[in-house]
Design brief:
InterPro entries: PsdUridine_synth_cat_dom_sf (IPR020103), PsdUridine_synth_RluA-like_CS (IPR006224), PsdUridine_synth_RsuA/RluA (IPR006145), RluA_PseudoU_synthase (IPR050188)
CATH class of the largest domain: Alpha Beta
Catalytic activity: a uridine in RNA = a pseudouridine in RNA
Order of helices and strands: HHEHEEEHEEHEEEEEHHEEE
Number of helices: 7
GO molecular function: catalytic activity, acting on RNA; pseudouridine synthase activity; RNA binding
Number of strands: 14
Distance between the termini: 41 Å
Pfam families: PseudoU_synth_2 (PF00849)
CATH superfamily of the largest domain: Pseudouridine synthase
CATH architecture of the largest domain: 2-Layer Sandwich
CATH topology of the largest domain: Pseudouridine synthase
Helix content: 10-25%
Largest sheet: 12 strands, mixed
Protein name: RNA pseudouridylate synthase
Length: 302
């Protein structure tokens, strides 16, 4: 193995720590023979070293917990699940490290979006909640602040429908001609300082749907590095300039208990970061508890 990898110190360290195993789970030691390894399946397994990651600022705030689900407020810049260069600094990574090894997101939020996210805690409950989201039986409400220099807010339509596609390997999604596969309801809440604050209720779940729809209307979301105004697209990513998009509310009938449930994010619409909350953590049924950090305290960094 040393000859194959050229990493003798790393191999010695992992052998000593019991981090190299055979296909049947038996730990490889310095005295494990080639013949024994072949007899036990032939393959050798170990954990790969993870690259260093920039810590993401903001705590993961617990809004609600019961036997089946954990509902949290996700800060901006924190990925939902491990992908690419984001492994430890993800919602799933933090929740599992805090003591919930079976946690699994029932849906996803874009890395740049903050707000309410639901995870299942038991493998037995996972399918019911994932199907709830997949079948679009959850009403999702987002809050966004958009630029209005390109279009007065009062001229925005109440519903946007279009066809959105995102090719594998491309960063951006785009609208194309054809049968609509994406629908978003809009409501203007207020207008101030060249921006407008909106409620958004997507009826479908295409990648970057809200960002694409608002950009196509001439009112891109403030701070959007992909679909935003030129200044936002050219600005280097900074924890001090988050995307002004919050997943504000989830409403659904619980697939296990049958109760009507609503969970509301306490995140400020950026630019202020998510932080710990006090009082009711956002769940409207009797199971909702106080908002508390879902894991160890972390420095404000994203």
């Amino acid at each position: 193995m040393r000859e194959i990898t050229g990493a003798s110190e790393q191999i010695d360290r992992r052998l000593a720590a019991g981090e190299i195993v055979l296909a049947d789970g038996a730990v490889v030691t310095a005295t494990t023979s080639y013949v024994e390894g072949r007899r036990r399946g032939g393959s050798v397994w170990t954990y790969r070293d993870l690259p260093s990651e920039t810590p993401v600022p903001g705590e993961l705030v617990e809004l609600h917990r019961d036997e089946d689900v954990l509902v949290v407020d996700k800060p901006p810049f924190l990925a939902t699940t491990p992908r690419g260069s984001h492994v430890r600094e993800t919602v799933l990574g933090r929740v599992q490290a805090a003591g919930d090894p079976d946690a699994s997101p029932a849906h996803r939020l874009d890395r740049l979006t903050s707000g309410v996210l639901l995870l299942t805690l038991r493998p037995e409950a996972r399918a019911a909640y994932q199907e709830l989201f997949a079948s679009r039986r959850v009403v999702k409400t987002y809050e966004a602040r958009v630029w209005t220099a390109g279009r007065p807010a009062e001229t925005l339509p109440g519903v946007v429908r279009s066809r959105i596609v995102k090719e594998r390997g491309e960063m951006c999604a785009r609208e194309v001609a054809g049968e609509p596969n994406a629908e978003t309801c809009l409501e203007v809440l207020d207008v101030a300082g060249g921006t407008a604050r909106l409620w958004l209720r997507p009826r479908t779940g295409r990648t970057h749907q809200l960002r694409v729809h608002l950009a196509s209307l001439g009112t891109p979301i403030v701070g959007d590095p992909l679909y935003g105004v030129e200044a936002d697209r050219e600005r280097p990513e900074s924890f001090d300039a988050p995307l002004a998009l919050v997943a504000r509310e989830l409403t659904f009938v619980d697939p296990i208990s049958g109760r009507a449930r609503t969970f509301t994010s306490r995140c400020d619409l950026p630019g202020e970061p998510c932080g710990p909350v006090t009082g009711n953590g956002g769940g409207t049924d009797e199971l909702g508890g106080a908002g508390t950090p879902a894991g160890p305290s972390e420095p404000d960094h994203r």
